[in-house]
Design a protein that fits this description.
The chain is an all-alpha fold. It is built from two helices and no strands. It is 65% helix and 0% strand. Helix 1 crosses helix 2.
Length: 82
Amino acid sequence: MSITADQVRAAHAEGYAAGHALQPAMPNPYAGEPLPPWRFPRDPDARRRYDQQTRERRALARVWLTGWDKGHAAYAALRSGH
C-alpha cells in the first residue's frame, strides 16, 4: 500500500490547523507509539521489516509536522502584524 495525495494533503491540513491553533506538536497523530530502545529490533532483517512496515506512517508524521510548523509560523506572523 502506498500513500495517496489525499492522505498527504489531509495530514498537512490537519498539522497546519493544529499549529495555527497552538496545539502542541506532540503527540503527532500519525506517529504512533514510539518503541522504547530495548524493544527495537536488533536483528538486521527484523529491523528492515520494521522500517518497511512503518515507512508510510513515519512519512505522514513528517508531513503533519511540516504542516504544524507552517501553521505555527502563520499564527506567529499574524500576531506580530506581518
